[in-house]
Amino acid sequence: MGRGSLVSKERDTCKKNSLTNINIHPHAHSGLNFVGVEQTMNNNGPGLFSDIGKKAKDLLTRDYLSDQKISFQTTTDAGVTLTSAATKKGGQSSGDVGVLYKYKNALLDVKLDTQSTVATTLTFTDIVPSTKTIASFKLPDFTSGKLEVQYFHRHATLTSAVALNHPQTIDLSATIGTPMFSFGAEAGYESSSSELTKYTAGISVNKPDSSASIVLGDKGDTIRASYIHHFDLLKKTAAVGEISRRLSTNENTFTVGGSYAVDGLTVVKAKLNNHGKLGAVLQHEIISKSLVTISSELDTNALDKTPKFGLALALKP
């Protein structure tokens, strides 16, 4: 076999691996689409439209809790991942158990909660080359089904999602560019009223240690700009700033925050906005891959009010 054939075969293998890489996070929050699953389809493309501004948003929102939660995750020798979680918020308690199983290019995710709701998500990669197909539904609500198709190209990403509920809604998004620079838009359409339910546009500039974005959302009523900068290779120490303005009310919100790795096991986070809301997070890895997270929020303009506290324990033996 010639050198050219070997290089071509290696390139095809790398592309296939990038389309099927699945990471399961032990402390991810549940949802109808992906429940605790993050999937990267193409590291050489611009990414999804929902990725624009996501890094800054995650640093300002992730792990800032106002409830108490304990979760457990383990994986059997057969490759089946079992999860369970219990949450208490206010005076309400809830819980769920779940199963995740990956077979070749397919991923099955089933979750049963204390409300007797069964949420199921089926994900297929490469049914058509460079695509990901996600089918999700909840039982006993048969009208909760949703079908989403994502297409990844070197210079563009397209998504289309159809909700089977009534009235039926269709969401479309497109992103054009490269991993370093991209811009895109999304829109939602309701069939019964023949009206757009949403339209959003955004632009993103990314570097290995930083990311900046501007998003125009809420049907053009809100503009949000954010910037995040990482100071270490593991991206555990970072600073972030976000400013948003609602045009209809002339209301501005400016938030600054950051994270700092105290050591290899402990991370602290903090954020403060111009309305006086101060938040803090302490996260510690008690044993390998098992985390305890303590968070609080204080209104500095109303010190007589009781601060909010949150606690999460994520165990992954």
TrEMBL record:
Cellular component terms (Gene Ontology): mitochondrial outer membrane; pore complex
Molecular-function annotations in GO: porin activity; voltage-gated monoatomic anion channel activity
UniProt keyword Ion transport present: yes
UniProt xrefs under InterPro entries: Porin_dom_sf, Porin_Euk, Porin_Euk/Tom40
CDD domains the UniProt entry points to: Porin3_VDAC
One Pfam family per UniProt: Porin_3
Places the protein is found: Membrane
Superkingdom of this protein's organism: Eukaryota
Function according to Swiss-Prot or TrEMBL: Forms a channel through the cell membrane that allows diffusion of small hydrophilic molecules. The channel adopts an open conformation at low or zero membrane potential and a closed conformation at potentials above 30-40 mV. The open state has a weak anion selectivity whereas the closed state is cation-selective.
PANTHER family per UniProt: PORIN DOMAIN, EUKARYOTIC PORIN_TOM40-RELATED, VOLTAGE-DEPENDENT ANION-SELECTIVE CHANNEL
Family: Belongs to the eukaryotic mitochondrial porin (TC 1.B.8.1) family.
UniProt-recorded name of the protein: Voltage-dependent anion-selective channel protein
Gene source species: Artemisia annua
Organism lineage: Eukaryota, Viridiplantae, Streptophyta, Embryophyta, Tracheophyta
